[in-house]
Amino acid sequence: MGSDPLMKSMAATGLNSWVEVPLGNPDEPIGYLSLRSLEMNTYGEDDLNILMRVVAYISPAIENGLLYAQAQKEAHENATLAEISRIITAMADIEDVYSLVAEQIQEIVPFDRIVVATIDRSRNLVTDRYVAGLMVEGGESNVTYPPDDSTVGHMENDLTARSLNRDEVEDLATRYPSDKSRIEAGLQSMLTAPLIWNDEVIGRLIMRSMKENAYGDAEAVIAVRIANQISGAVANAELAERTLRDNEEKVALAEISRIITSTSEIRRFMT
Q: Please, which of 113, 148, 163, 208 could form a disulfide with 215 given CB 3.0 to 4.6 Å?
């Protein structure tokens, strides 16, 4: 029993008979119980009826097992997110926050490289504030670059999380050469979520994996929850740095003004 293309495919491997019954709700099965044989015409209606009785007996246990596994997974995710929240609240140094949060993220969304990139719209710059995992050419911490030259800039106003497979990642690399080194390093999949503060995208959380098709909708949902948790800490760190930079500029300008207006130092300044 089975579709002709599938039977032909199995026959090519020496499997000449096949019987299969859906597990759980036939309209939305949770899986299938299949029997396959090297002999021709092995299974008939009696075998199918027996298999259906077996499935009716084991399906509830399998469904309960899947529900339990899902509940355990969700409990682990929630506990990890709670720990991320605790870290953000307890730690004052943003570098410590990044490092410890990355360790927690690895528990629920495995990655080979992770980046927290911020966007400074006033200076039209993107900065990779935190980088961990696989190092690539031109991809170190605190490297700055124009938004137009990067994937982060491409998604500057994107309010959604995105999971990208190898083809999509390669397509971005053809448009943004800075991404080429990621492909060359073997990073085939990407997961990214926006860091949003005061209804504005202030950066992106980016995770990459050496595995093909490593991320999907479930991981995108988790990435959004993580990004929402760390956005406040990232925004505060960016504000602190901007304030420090502005103060340093004010001090420098005040010193320049003092030198220029000083009658005793004007000749030395001019020379």
A: 163
